[in-house]
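Provenance

Sequences were taken from public entries as deposited. Structures were produced by running a predictor on each sequence independently, with no templates supplied. The record for Class I SAM-dependent methyltransferase from Streptomyces morookaense is shown for reference.
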Amino acid sequence: MTELDTLHATRDAYDAIAPVYAQQFRDTLGDRPLERALLSAFAELVRTNGNGGVADLGCGPGHVTAHLHGLGLNAFGIDASPVMVGLAREANPGLRFEVGSMAALDIEDGTLGGVLSRWSVIHTPPQDLPAVLAEISRVLAPGGHLLIEFPATDGPDHETQAYDHTVLTAYRWSPDRLAGLLRDHGLTESARIVIEPGPTDRRQFQEVQLLAYKA
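Predicted structure for Class I SAM-dependent methyltransferase:
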């Protein structure tokens, strides 16, 4: 499947479930204090470096974009699903949301203070992820920060692993391997949080949050 085919498949799948998704995940940060704390730290770092615009990639219905805005950031959302973008605009009329591809962002070079990628790369096939990371690096200003979240593989011997996601095929990454790809694209890891699954969680694998900056 080509990169364009993957984008279309992801767009169509999320278009189909957008209203249900928006309802089900409208408060995903409510019971995640560690994630809220890291988002606050991310916001503080962006503000300290000049408070440039922040792109929430794969923003879905826009609730996390709104959270970033509440933290004082000039945040806007980008998603491949036009239906998701429509729901985000409806729920947050004062914020900016656009339809777009993470691998071809309509953003000028070196203009963003931050990028959030919250589980937005999980449907990106491993061979296509470098193009996405290259785009993120391109649009970040020097000193800009990236916060990227993704599910981890079962161990360092597995660089990537596919898994059965509710919507369409998704991928897990070795944290060290993904951090290495970030370095390859001029992004230096500054912090890492690994969250263990709870005993009742349906998916029994770790969640990883990497914070990196562009030198």
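The chain has one domain: 3-214.
The first strand starts at residue 53 and ends at 57.
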